[in-house]
What does this fold into?
Amino acid sequence: MTSLSPKLDSTKSSRPLSAASPKCRSGTPRTDRQNIAASDHSPRPINFGAETLVVADTRNQQCRRLGHDPCQSGSARIDNMVEPWTIDELDHAGHEHLDPAFVAGFDDKQGHPDPADDLAVLSSCGLGKESTVVDLGAGTGQFALRAARAFGKVIAVDVSPAMLEVLRNRASELGLDNFDCIEAGFLSYEHAGPPADAVYTRNALHQLPDFWKALALTRIAAFMRSGGVLRLHDLIYDFQPSQAEAVFTRWLSHAATDPTRGYTREDFAEHIHTEHSTFRWLFEPMLSAAGFEIATAHFDGSVYGTYTCIKA
Ligand SMILES: C[S@@+](CC[C@H](N)C(=O)[O-])C[C@H]1O[C@@H](n2cnc3c(N)ncnc32)[C@H](O)[C@@H]1O
It folds into this structure.
């Protein structure tokens, strides 16, 4: 089985990036223009980091459409950004993630990466039963459902109704009472309540082009408390442009052959063509600009990064 995370031996690198490792101290999506047009809600400003955007409130419509209760918690709203230059996150979400048939086979394709390391990192940073963790791009909940056993509250956010359907059913079967499912995206999730103690995101941020990625990181920092932890895994390119051909050739040579059990050469090629992995040397300044200090960074195969960052 070939997960998104490559297991290549020759280019593994891990380094603590901050000289003084920071101490861990102890919040649609489809810009459904028809919905907006039909909405009674007038456009209103939302906090977009330091800026303010005008949005239309279609949360109630979305919640009705989904037939579930995220609105009851009041912990987030679904906002559609209606400026002509704003992005439609569903258009960038990866068509397959919106397809119930793909979602039904998602866990077999992606594999079941053990979240134990992620949970241990967050625990080592002081998170516990009082802590709130937000999982952005939560998918079928491989991390979020486990995290709900370890931490006080987990908010699982995803832009895909199909993913959320699976996740909501799983949470319900487990009888979790500290778990919210929110249909929203990196650019539309609105956190309510105390600032989050941690944000987790795996294999999702690359869906956004760089400009929006930087804004997403800034939005994330804005709803975290100072000293909070960002744990991030994603396809990030740790090489120079001149090395692209060699790195991609090696990466694709390790692809799965069975598309139901892993990511194939075609999947990786589609990722390179159509998605938005960033060079590490561009991504890390984005983290800094958003207000994060990088505590650790680890790369597999020059194409997959794992970061632990502390909100300054
Ligand atoms: C490859 S899956 C990863 C799911 C999960 N994080 C995991 O590792 O199992 C990517 C997920 O990101 C979601 N996604 C895509 N674009 C998004 C966005 N702009 N905001 C939030 N989630 C998004 C997709 O719907 C999908 O569930």
The two ends are 38 Å apart (CA to CA).
